[in-house]
Amino acid sequence: MSFLKAEWNNLAMINYEVNPEILQKYVPAGTEIDFWNGKCYVSFIGFLFENVRVLGMKIPFHSDFEEVNLRFYVRRFENGVWKRGAVFISEIVPKYAISFVANTFYNEHYRTLPMKHMLKVNENSREFIYQWKVNNNWNTIQVATQKNPIAIEPDSEAEFITEHYFGYTKINENETFEYQVTHPRWQQYEVTRNESVIDFESVYGKEFAFIKDLKPTSVFLAIGSKITIEDKRKIKL
């Protein structure tokens, strides 16, 4: 039985190219940074976590909520193949129980903050808004898209960002948690406008404050799907 079954829907992905040296201390043992065309990315992602079931059970008042996370991309070579995965630097949700379970059982880095979202479907467009409150100020991921879905093209930047099927968490310098994420290949809505306003320093600290001066390399809106998160295993070097 999968540890968790749910849906990840309407994933707004804002991507930045950064110096990989900034991320080295976060790289879990046994993995290395995964590059696309020589570029190292971090992504800010806002989405809806819906119809959540943990070990087959629906938890009252904790089955539908927003999440915003900051992640980067790694890979691990095992049994002759590369496993491509994500490492989460920070994950924000509005439910304390979600943070407790993720931090306790998966050694993740969840915070609980006030959050809200709004989705609009217009005649020829869609709008996606995710907000979270830090120090009495609302931060906002806000993108507008075309109305109809399109494919995520093979070998594209969008495929690189969306097609990672493992999560890796650094326990210490010699141990890592690995867990598999399963979902079908996603489609996307083409983004036409990005009006996001994020106070990077207040949300992610001085270490990532520099991102406010960067222009995103890309912005995607992945439609999402049902997903599973399998039970973790410990990797020791």
Overall description:
The chain is mainly β and 237 residues long. The protein has a single domain, classed as Acetoacetate decarboxylase-like (Beta Barrel), CATH 2.40.400.10. 9% of the residues lie in helices and 54% in strands. It contains three helices and 14 strands. The protein has helices spanning 96-106, 157-162, 200-204; strands at residues 4-17, 32-33, 41-54, 65-78, 81-93, 110-112, 115-121, 125-134, 137-151, 166-170, 175-182, 187-194, 218-229, 233-236. A seven-stranded mixed β-barrel has the order 1-3-4-5-10-11-13. A hairpin with a 2-residue loop joins strand 8 (125-134) and strand 9. The radius of gyration is 17 Å and the shape is globular. The mean pLDDT is 93.
Features:
7-stranded mixed barrel; single chain; 3 helices; Acetoacetate decarboxylase-like; globular; mainly beta; 54% strand; 237 residues
